[in-house]
Amino acid sequence: MCSCSYRETLVCNNAKIKYVLIKEKSKGDFVRFSDIFTKSKYNDHLCVLPKDCDKGGLYFVIGLDAKVKNLPPGAWIEIRCLFASEDKNEEVYSSDINREFDERLNEIYFKISDDCSIRNNLTAWKIVIYSETGEPLVVKKSYLWVDKS
Hints:
With 149 residues, the protein is mainly beta. It is 4% helix and 42% strand.
């Protein structure tokens, strides 16, 4: 199981990662009642990454203390996960941060897999939000994550 505690190492642009949750979500979790009648998409009220992913699966929910829209243009996110299994060791997931959604949002939903059972083998993780030039803006990692020298 993944450790629930984490350490924050960098802060920039007054943005901090307040919390990280790992959640299983179904497609129905992303549809609001009004969407059924208007046939609109869910991208306006949630920041879901990668942008073109099928919506059901295992997600990192990343809560910021600032609005996602206030991140610098061109910002992108990378999630590194360590798994305790024979078929997976370290996986890296990355995506540009879509800024075309409701301005009030302060959470990013980042899908890492269609297979929710990999959660049982997830032992550590590290999340980095980078500037357009590749400079780390915000870093958060689980308690068990150890950076390689």
